[in-house]
Amino acid sequence: MAIFVNSDSKVIVQGMTGAEGRKHSQLMLASGTNIVGGVTPGKGGQKVEFDSGTSVPVFGSVAVDTRVRLSGPKLRLNVV
Q1: Does residue 64 lie within any of the structural domains?
Q2: Is the CB of residue 44 less than 8 Å from the CB of residue 58?
Q3: Which of 2, 21, 38, 70 has the CB geometry, 3.0–4.6 Å to 58, for a possible disulfide?
Q4: Is residue 6 part of a domain?
């Protein structure tokens, strides 16, 4: 199965507040990925600041994230 991400794709990252999630989110932002939010249970309402100066909101669940963004994400990435 191929997954195509382009400049129009909206990406939410599950587990973005952890060390690995943060590292991979930073790499994705550096390559031009449009990360619109992160999801970590119990950490909704926070923001993650990246080296590039980008600030990404964190939601407590994917359901909350997609309700806030009515168009919903086109791709979800899980970082375990």
Answers
A1: yes
A2: yes
A3: 38
A4: no
Residue 44 burial class via C-beta count within 10 angstroms: exposed 0-12, middle 13-18, buried 19 and up: middle
Q: Amino acid identity of 28?
A: M
Pairing verdict, β 47-49 and 55-59: antiparallel
For residue 59, give the CATH number of its domain.
3.40.50.720
Total domain count, the chain: 1
- Kindly list the distances between the CA atom of residue 56 and the CA atoms of 2, 3, 4, 26, 71, in Å, as whole numbers in the listed order: 26, 23, 22, 11, 17
Structure confidence at residue 8 (pLDDT): 75
Which residues of the chain fall short of a pLDDT of 70?
1-3, 65-80
- pTM for the model stands at 0.76
Instruction: Specify if 16 maps to a domain.
Output: yes
